[in-house]
Amino acid sequence: MGSREEIVAAAATVMRERGYAHATTKAIAQAAGYSEALLYKHFRDKTALFLAVLNEELPDLVATTARLAEAPEKAQLSDNLAELTTTALAFYCASFPISVSIFSSRDLLRTHRDTLENGPDLPIQHVAGYLAAEVKIGRLPSDLDVDAAARLLLGACFQEAFLASFEERPPRPDLVDRLVATFAKIG
């Protein structure tokens, strides 16, 4: 593992413990065992580091949905939905403690929002794309509002991540099965 990867891993740990707002580049560099100057050789600012954490240290929800949308017929609908839901829940559970502190300051939120190329609606778009692929092959109804369905599925995962973080507990073990069963009934 190189210095960049070690810095990203340390950033994930520090951001989970302190939240984005209170994770300083100095603390991240110290946790990684490097100088702050080296951190800035790899990342232009803390937001770039945060995005690297989201892309490299958390479950890859976008890649999962893209792969499922590409060939949904490779597995049963229930298996695809289970993988998608499990990944979404893991992503939100891992990212919630890191990103929630962005809302602690309107200025911090505005700055963060202005630096993002793709917003938090990107997973919705990708899940809707996957659901549209299931509609196309006839496993979900042709009149399904895929955007609304994607928002419902991800909203349930996000809400559970919030509750699990708030209550300092793991996600409910039956949630994935219950969501999959509900969505499978639609098909």
From TrEMBL:
<dbReference type="InterPro" id="IPR036271">
    <property type="entry name" value="Tet_transcr_reg_TetR-rel_C_sf"/>
</dbReference>
<protein>
    <submittedName>
        <fullName>TetR/AcrR family transcriptional regulator</fullName>
    </submittedName>
</protein>
<dbReference type="InterPro" id="IPR009057">
    <property type="entry name" value="Homeodomain-like_sf"/>
</dbReference>
<dbReference type="Pfam" id="PF00440">
    <property type="entry name" value="TetR_N"/>
</dbReference>
<feature type="domain" description="HTH tetR-type">
    <location>
        <begin position="1"/>
        <end position="61"/>
    </location>
</feature>
<dbReference type="InterPro" id="IPR050109">
    <property type="entry name" value="HTH-type_TetR-like_transc_reg"/>
</dbReference>
<dbReference type="InterPro" id="IPR001647">
    <property type="entry name" value="HTH_TetR"/>
</dbReference>
<keyword id="KW-0805">Transcription regulation</keyword>
<keyword id="KW-0804">Transcription</keyword>
<keyword id="KW-0238">DNA-binding</keyword>
<feature type="DNA-binding region" description="H-T-H motif">
    <location>
        <begin position="24"/>
        <end position="43"/>
    </location>
</feature>
